[in-house]
Amino acid sequence: MTGLVSAERGIGGIALADALPEVVVVVFAAVTHLADPWFLFALLAVGYWFADDRLAGSPRRAGATAIAVVTCAYAAVAVAKAGFAVPRPPGATGPADVPTWLPVLLSGWYEAQVLSDGFGFPSGHATGGAAAYGALALAYDRLWTGRTRVAAAVAIAVAVAVSRVVIEVHYAVDVIAGLLLGAAVVAGALALAGDPRLRPGGDSSGDPTAALDPTPAFVLAAAVSVVAAGVAVAGGHPGEVIEAGIGIATGVGGAVGWLLVDGDEPPVSVGVAVPALAVTGALWVGAYALADSLPVTLVATTVAVVAVVALPAAAREGLDGIRAAV
């Protein structure tokens, strides 16, 4: 795929950022957090654990499927970035032009937001944002109206995409491609998971989430990530190999975790979820911090994802055990 997308991909964020007040650019630097991988997976995990029948008829199936959709999206990004291997805009490599009026504590944060390494096409934030918020809008089908959910999802995804251009870490074509890729992944992964609304002739009456099975989507994400790893190795891109490895582990961990879940578990209690989020979050951070050791990263990521997906079943087993003892 190398050479199909030019390194000079049209207008970046330089002209747009220069024309905007600094405070607006800073606001967009914050908006981009809405599609940071850590934020999305935390959001998806919280929804998966806590959602009840006010959000979806089968909230555990809906939540796990949303996680699987986003895992597929990142796998697709890993393949594309390793294959196209084109750089980000010059502004992404620094030095950062930090507003002088920002407090010292925020200067480091801002610099970290507007500097980014790795390849630029397509935008992972735009893809992940479109996939995550699109999947949430379709999976939690009892929240608001369908039009309101979709409108909110589109608004957030577009805002994130614009933010990536404003802070000069992507060209416009990168985020447009990301939005389109994310939308395509939502449709494909939900259809693969058995969503009757996305299958020709399917019956969408009743509870569409009751038919969802995230396992095929998790497996697909792992398989696509294997392809991404191969492309990255062939191209000599070690950073992309790590990203692909995390995708493999996430897909495998999600599929294994779902094997332990019936799909009809009640919401997880806060007392169980808070320590679980702390432990899985620590494992996730450790997976990235120890990225120089691929085996450690794979194991940490797999364990974290298995724990996230299997937690509702583990919590119910623990509760049943306590009731039996009493």
TrEMBL record:
Going by the UniProt record, its keywords in alphabetical order are: Membrane, Transmembrane, Transmembrane helix
TM annotation in the entry? 23-50, 62-80, 150-167, 173-194, 215-235, 241-261, 268-290, 296-315
- List the protein's name: Phosphatase PAP2 family protein
| Pfam families from the UniProt entry | PAP2 (PF01569)
Per the UniProt record, the source organism is: Halorubrum rubrum
Keyword Repeat recorded:
no
Determine the domain of life of the protein's source.
Archaea
Q: Which Gene3D superfamilies match?
A: Phosphatidic acid phosphatase type 2/haloperoxidase (1.20.144.10)
- Answer yes or no on keyword ATP-binding: no
Residues annotated as domain Phosphatidic acid phosphatase type 2/haloperoxidase: 65-190
